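Q: Focus on the chain.
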Amino acid sequence: MKDVDSDDLVTGTLPKLKSSKEWLEPQPLSFMEDLVIDAHESCRQPFFALVTFQALAKEDTDAAIQSILYRENYVIKELDKYLHHHDFLNTRRKEMLYKRWADHVADPLQKKVLEKVCSYKKIKKRRQEESDSFVKYVNKTGNVFIQHYDPKEYDPFYMSKEDPNFMKVIVPPFRDPLKKAQYDKDEEKRTLLQCETG
């Protein structure tokens, strides 16, 4: 690094900053050059001193390169270890989330679906009873058409008039347990809005 001029110290101005190109350009090893020049001037045997200092410089640069490579390998190994650990944690988190979803959402929903699907026997039995009562009525009265029936004797629409959901499979609305917090917030907002508006 260049020394600050004495004029800069007297005037109190800062030295000129280097541009980005100057920072990126490789600089010569001035320390090693100065060392070789000093050794050359001080020694009577210039060739021996030059060879000695070149060997020392080469050993120093080799050691510096080895140190840099060692640090680089260490950093790469640590980074690789961290990334593997991070991937493992993400995979484990996904597994836990899937297990929680399967336990709280998929399995209960599957059970409800199976209950409704297996309840076809009850529906089949009800339909059989309805058709049996219709057959008995037809056998008793003769030919029956939908336009000509006496509701006092037999009303095929009796149950649909009494219960609009007769012979329909109804699944209650499903509330996802993973979204329970959101449902609670929505319910709270709805209640507050009703209280404010009256």
Summary: The longest helix spans residues 46-118. The chain is about 70% helix and 0% strand.
